[in-house]
């Protein structure tokens, strides 16, 4: 499940203001591991869009060479 950027910023602000990571996780209803992941990311981190990262088309010329070999 993806959390909103607003929630992420509120959690990070809470911890930056001196709140504990455990308390932030409880208060904002996220896993402690999520809080640690968010704290470990660079400030300009952006989520990737879901979906394939590369094309899945086969080059017919390369396929023909592989079949002949």
Model description:
The chain has helices at 5-16, 21-28, 32-40, 60-68. Helix 1 runs antiparallel to helix 2 and helix 2 packs across helix 3. It contains four helices and no strands. It is 55% helix and 0% strand. It is mainly α and 69 residues long. The model has no long low-confidence stretch (mean pLDDT 89). The longest helix is centred in the N-terminal third of the chain and has 12 residues, at 5-16. The termini are far apart. The protein is rod-shaped and about 65 Å long.
Structure class: mainly alpha
What is the overall pLDDT average? 89
Low-confidence stretches: none
Order of helices and strands: HHHH
Strand content: under 5%
Distance between the termini: 45 Å
**Topology, number of strands:** 0
Give the proportion of residues in helices.
Answer: 55-70%
Number of distinct helices: 4
Overall outline: rod-shaped
Biggest beta-sheet profile:
none
The gyration radius over C-alpha positions equals 21 Å
List keywords for this structure.
single chain; 69 residues; mainly alpha; 4 helices; rod-shaped
Secondary structure elements and pairings:
Blueprint: H1 5-16, H2 21-28, H3 32-40, H4 60-68
Helix pairs in contact: 1-2, 2-3
Compact overview of the structure:
This protein has four helices and no strands.
